[in-house]
TrEMBL record, chain A:
Source organism of the structure: Calycina marina
InterPro entries registered for this protein in UniProt: DCTN4
Annotated protein name in UniProt: Dynactin subunit 4
Matching Pfam families: Dynactin_p62
Family statement drawn from the similarity comment of this UniProt entry: Belongs to the dynactin subunit 4 family.
Primary location group: cytoplasm
Keywords: Acetylation, Coiled coil, Cytoplasm, Cytoskeleton, Isopeptide bond, Phosphoprotein, Ubl conjugation
UniProtKB/TrEMBL annotation, chain B:
Homology family: Belongs to the dynactin subunits 5/6 family. Dynactin subunit 6 subfamily.
Lineage: superkingdom: Eukaryota
UniProt-recorded name of the protein: Dynactin subunit 6
Subcellular location: Cytoplasm, Cytoskeleton
């Protein structure tokens, strides 16, 4: 059995006002049985719960809404684009024009995705001054991890820099890449000498085919737009028929767009030769591929992971090309409700600091759980009461009052019984650590684990187990449920009577929903929104705050008997 | 204070070193079978060569890094002995990196065995193979020449045309540098 680490997940309030979910086969909830939101116990096993539970470290906190914010209730804004390899900041305008890949010299190995390095093919010079003399070309791209080299696809470079530009001019095998436009220019020159022009079925590479298709359809759209059936809309400046049909579709449903497309057929024409981007597939291509696969064998074919990285569809190792690094982003996050920034990284790529970072762990108490007595096994024995220490740690500079509420038995088919021995307590402020250390001497000795195991101190109901500077731990008593679904009928719970199927995945994990309510008083003057004058007036006033949320504590796995 | 054992130290294995071998003072050569090390080979401090089960033969221009273990770690089967198994034979220009465990029957010329890689007992590596860090070659496996083992046991053939002599020349130069850095004490290992 694998070991189990206790965990605490917090529920983000953004999912609260959604309707409760229903599993397959369950009866339709009758409208009368609808209870109000506050009364309902949060069920960590509900299918919807998986989307609203987060570890504390993943959550943000909005200071203006006084609410927890998860990644689903914040807006992302891209601050910078940068290349993860050369850490060069790419302006967003060039991201739009040149795509989301690094256009400098950062390339990844097509075989293993490690970064490629440039090295000279020429023999290193020996003798005096060999270290300082520049290496001469030609150069190749080398993978230092899997030893792939651009020599394998027949590409050698003349310069050690500007690799992106050099690579885009060279095909695999070393032939220069001529774009369709250049070729046409050359062809035109040829035509003047010989009558042979480019055939209508000439083969194009993917880039020029795309170029041809794009230019053809753009011209078609431009031609058809004014003469289209929607002449009366022309005045609004919706030039492209695509946009037009989309807008009309909004009002009239999809049938309108279809009708329009029918009427358009007369005006729009499809591609009919290679200069317009038409490429005929022939069985000859398949035959070529089959003979090639027979020649190179399994070794020479690219894996699906390798094919996926390539810009064009590629089947063989010889056709693989090095690809440049994908750019990454730094993002700032805003609250969706009040639009205040919750997290804003420093815009410089090299700087990993944040200008604003309102993480939840600085605002809401952290909750951890651990067994009171060290059990011999990591599994919980069914029907045997076991005590856990629940520690609540206060990150605020004010002392807080905490109420903890749990359902008497956990939701789900196997209902374990849960009792918090001290559900109400106060936690001290998170003040200077050294003050506490200096004051420590006069205080009563803290309870240690050893004492607890000797049984000298029993957990008492209504009393705090242990208290520290800014934390309090209380004892929770749990009676784990039995995981048996067989047995006499009268011993079964209602849920099991309804559904006595075998144990589902992770159903043996004991999860306790806990409702935490935190109250504290804070200086109203801390509020920036109050303004200066108001702030001065209210300086003496204390403002009462409260925060309430559900969280789920994973305690451990129950042993199957 | 260091406690010295009252037992006499274990007998040194019969060792043949070339005059140009660089072998660090605190490399560990142990076992009972012969250990033969070729010319211009550099052996780092704390390299372990164990010939307790089978002899070890290392070629010229090799580099054995620290904490690497070479030699059969368990007894070779009788069938192997009858076939005249020569133990571990390492070719020329082989680099064994830090912490690698080599129990191969044969390691071809110009192989590179990277950090913490493991070559199983009785495996055969062809020429110019490269075993990436933490990769494992199974016992008795035969790896063809120019194979690169990388990632999670992935293999590919390096067809970029490795120039063997250039590679060995580079390793030779590295060994020359090591000659200046490592305090060589061949006398300690030769009885």
């Amino acid at each position: 059995m694998t070991s189990f680490t206790p965990y605490t997940y917090f529920q983000c309030p953004c999912t609260e006002n959604s309707t409760s979910s229903r599993t397959f086969g369950e009866d339709l909830p009758s409208p009368t049985s609808d209870t109000s939101e506050d009364d309902r116990t949060f069920d960590p096993r509900a299918p919807r719960a998986a989307y609203s539970l987060h570890p504390l470290e993943h959550l943000l906190y909005c200071e203006d809404c006084h609410q927890i914010r998860c990644h689903r209730c914040v807006l992302d804004e891209i601050v910078t684009w940068y290349c993860p390899n050369c850490l060069f900041e790419v302006p967003s305008s060039s991201v739009k024009s040149e795509g989301n890949r690094c256009t400098r010299s950062c390339f990844q190995c097509p075989v293993c995705t490690a970064s490629l390095s440039v090295s000279s093919v020429a023999l290193a010079q020996t003798g005096l001054g060999a270290d300082i003399s520049a290496q001469a070309g030609p150069y190749v791209l080398n993978c230092t991890y899997c030893q792939w080299s651009s020599k394998e696809i027949g590409i050698q470079l003349e310069k050690p820099n500007g690799i992106y530009a050099q690579l885009s001019k060279v095909k695999n095998g070393g032939e220069p890449y001529i774009s369709a436009k250049d070729r046409r220019r050359e062809d035109r020159r040829d035509i003047s000498e010989s009558p042979k022009g480019p055939g209508p079925n000439e083969t194009l590479d993917a880039d020029s085919q795309f170029e041809n298709l794009k230019s053809f359809y753009q011209s078609q759209l431009a031609d058809s737009a004014p003469s289209g059936g929607m002449g009366f809309m022309g005045g609004y400046g919706y030039g492209s028929p695509g946009a037009l049909s989309r807008i009309m579709g909004l009002y009239t449903g999809s049938s309108f767009g279809d009708k329009k497309r029918e009427s358009k057929n007369g005006n729009m024409r499809e591609v009919c030769d290679s200069s317009e981007g038409l490429q005929l597939t022939s069985t000859k291509d398949d035959q070529c591929a089959i003979t090639r696969i027979q020649r190179v064998g399994w070794e020479g074919t690219a894996s699906t992971a390798q094919q996926k990285e390539q810009a064009q569809s590629v089947r063989f190792m010889d056709d693989l090309r090095p690809f440049s690094h994908l750019l990454r982003t730094k993002r700032s996050k805003r609250c969706r409700a009040c639009r205040h920034i919750l997290s804003k990284p420093e815009s410089k790529v090299q700087n990993t600091r944040f200008r604003i970072r309102l993480v939840a762990r600085n605002y809401i108490p952290a909750i951890t759980i651990q067994p009171l007595q060290q059990a011999p096994t990591s599994l919980l024995t069914p029907m045997k009461p076991v005590q856990f220490v629940l520690t609540v740690k206060n990150p605020l500079f004010e002392s807080v009052r905490v109420n903890i509420a749990t359902p008497a038995s956990t939701p789900g088919r196997f209902a374990s019984k849960v009792t918090v021995l001290c559900p109400q307590f106060e936690i001290g402020a998170s003040t200077d650590m050294f003050d506490e250390a200096l004051r420590e001497g006069g205080k009563e000795k803290r309870r240690t684990k050893a004492e607890a195991s000797e049984g000298q101190l029993q957990a008492e109901a209504g009393k705090i187990w242990e208290r520290g500077r800014n934390w309090v731990s209380v004892v929770v008593e749990i009676v784990p449920a039995s995981l048996r679904t067989d047995g006499p009928e009268f011993m079964k719970s209602q849920q099991i009577q309804k559904d006595d199927g075998p144990l589902r995945e992770d159903e043996d994990v004991l999860e306790i929903p806990v409702f935490v309510r935190v109250e504290w008083e804070t200086d109203a003057a801390h509020e920036e929104s109050g303004g200066l004058a108001a702030g001065n007036k209210e300086k003496e006033l204390k403002e009462k705050r409260e925060l309430a949320y559900w969280c789920v504590i994973g305690v451990g796995r129950i042993a199957q008997d | 204070m260091r406690r010295t054992s009252t037992m006499p130290s274990a007998p040194k294995p019969p060792t043949t070193l070339s005059s140009s071998t660089v072998i660090a003072d605190n490399a560990s050569l142990s076992g009972t079978h012969t250990i033969k090390i070729g010319s211009n080979t550099a052996i780092h401090p704390r390299t372990k060569l164990f010939s307790g089960n089978a002899p070890i033969t290392i070629g010229n221009y090799c580099i054995l890094s620290e904490r690497s273990i070479t030699g059969y770690q368990s007894a070779i089967p009788d069938a192997e002995k009858e076939r005249g198994g020569g133990g571990v034979v390492i070719g020329n220009g082989v680099v064994i990196e830090v912490g690698a465990v080599v129990e191969a029957k044969e390691v071809g010329d110009g192989c590179v065995i990277e950090v913490n890689a493991r070559i199983g007992k009785g495996a055969v590596l062809g020429e110019h193979c490269r075993v990436s860090p933490l990769c494992i070659v199974a016992p008795e496996e035969v790896v063809p020449a120019y194979t690169v083992i990388y990632g999670d046991g992935l293999r590919r053939l390096d067809r970029s045309g490795v120039k063997g002599d250039v590679k060995i020349d580079m390793i030779g130069r590295q060994a020359d540098v090591l000659r200046r850095l490592i305090l060589s004490n061949p006398a300690k290992f030769q009885s």
